[in-house]
C-alpha cells in the first residue's frame, strides 16, 4: 500500500481504489481473523449493551461508537506495521483521545436527532409505515403512503449524507493525526467529497459484502464482514491521508500529523 508523498492531503485517488480498499481490508483481516472477530463481538456487544440502559442508553451507545472505531483503526495499524495484534490495541480510543472521540459521537447523536425531528415534522412515521406493511394493504394504499413519506425520506438522505461524510474519517484523524474534533470533521468531509467516486465504489462493494453476510445464519457472517469493513476504512485512510514511503522504510515514516497541516 504505497502512495505518493508529494500530493496535497487529503489526496484524490482513482475510483478503482474503492474496491482495492476492500481487498486490502480483507488481507489485513486474514492476518488475525479470530482475534479481530472476537474483538468485534465483544466491543459491539458492549456498545449494544449500553443501548439497553433506560433513558440514556441510546446516547451512551452513540458516544461510545467512535471509541470502537478508533480501537479497530489502532489494531489494523499494528497489523499493517507487522506487529502482533493484542487486545489492548482495541482500547486505543479509551486509553487515548477519548474525549475528542466521544465529541464525534455527540455530533453523530445530535445530527441524527435533529434530522429525525425534521423528517417527523415532514410527516415521516416509521411505526405507521411498518404497521401498514405488516397489514398487507392493497398496492394502491401502500403507494399512497409511500408518496406521502417520500419527501421526508429524500430530505433525510440529503441531510444524512454530509453527516456521514464528516464523521467517516474523523476517528482515525483524531487517533492518528491528533486533529481536534472540529478539524477532523471538516477534513473528513473534504476528503470524502474529493474522493466521492472511490467512496461510492467502496460503499457499493461493502454493501454487497454486508448483504451476503446477512444471509449467514445467526448473523455469524457479520463477525467477518464488519472487521473487513473496518479494515477497508483503515486502508482508505492510509491511501488518502497517511504518508507512505517504500516498504523498506521505518514504519514511523508512514504517519502524517493532521493537526499540523489543518489546524
Class by alpha and beta content: mainly alpha
Strand content: under 5%
Q: Provide mean pLDDT, rounded.
A: 87
| Largest sheet report | none
**Low-confidence spans: pLDDT under 50, at least 5 residues?**
244-263
Computed CA radius of gyration, to the nearest angstrom: 20 Å
Ends distance: 27 Å
DSSP helical segment count: 12
Q: How does the overall form come out from the CA principal axes?
A: globular
Element order: H for helix, E for strand:
HHHHHHHHHHHH
Give helix % range.
over 70%
Q: How many domains would you count in the coordinates?
A: 1
Q: Please tally the β strands and state the result.
A: 0
Detailed description of the structure:
By secondary structure, the chain is mainly α. It has one domain (17-262). It is built from 12 helices and no strands. The two termini are 27 Å apart.
Amino acid at each position: 500500500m504505497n502512495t505518493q508523498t508529494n500530493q496535497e492531503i487529503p489526496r484524490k485517488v482513482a475510483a478503482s481504489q474503492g474496491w482495492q480498499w476492500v481487498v486490502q481490508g480483507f488481507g489485513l483481516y486474514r492476518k488475525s481473523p479470530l482475534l479481530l472477530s472476537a474483538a468485534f463481538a465483544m466491543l459491539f456487544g458492549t456498545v449494544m449493551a449500553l443501548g439497553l440502559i433506560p433513558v440514556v442508553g441510546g446516547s451512551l451507545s452513540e458516544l461510545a461508537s467512535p471509541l470502537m472505531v478508533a480501537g479497530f483503526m489502532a489494531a489494523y495499524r499494528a497489523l499493517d506495521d507487522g506487529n502482533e495484534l493484542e487486545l489492548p490495541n482495541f482500547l486505543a480510543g479509551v486509553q487515548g483521545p477519548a474525549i475528542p472521540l466521544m465529541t464525534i459521537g455527540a455530533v453523530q447523536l445530535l445530527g441524527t436527532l435533529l434530522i429525525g425531528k425534521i423528517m417527523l415534522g415532514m410527516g415521516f412515521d416509521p411505526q405507521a409505515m411498518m404497521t401498514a406493511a405488516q397489514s398487507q394493504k392493497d398496492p394502491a394504499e401502500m403507494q399512497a403512503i409511500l408518496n406521502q413519506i417520500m419527501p421526508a425520506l429524500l430530505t433525510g438522505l440529503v441531510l444524512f449524507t454530509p453527516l456521514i461524510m464528516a464523521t467517516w474519517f474523523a476517528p482515525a484523524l483524531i487517533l492518528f493525526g491528533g486533529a481536534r474534533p472540529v478539524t477532523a470533521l471538516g477534513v473528513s468531509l473534504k476528503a470524502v467529497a474529493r474522493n466521492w467516486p472511490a467512496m461510492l465504489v467502496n460503499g457499493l462493494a461493502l454493501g454487497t459484502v454486508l448483504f451476503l453476510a446477512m444471509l449467514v445464519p445467526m448473523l455469524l457472517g457479520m463477525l467477518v464482514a464488519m472487521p473487513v469493513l473496518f479494515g477497508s476504512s483503515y486502508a482508505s485512510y492510509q491511501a488518502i491521508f497517511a504518508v507512505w514511503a517504500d516498504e523498506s522504510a521505518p514504519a514511523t515514516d508512514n504517519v502524517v500529523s493532521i493537526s499540523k497541516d489543518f489546524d
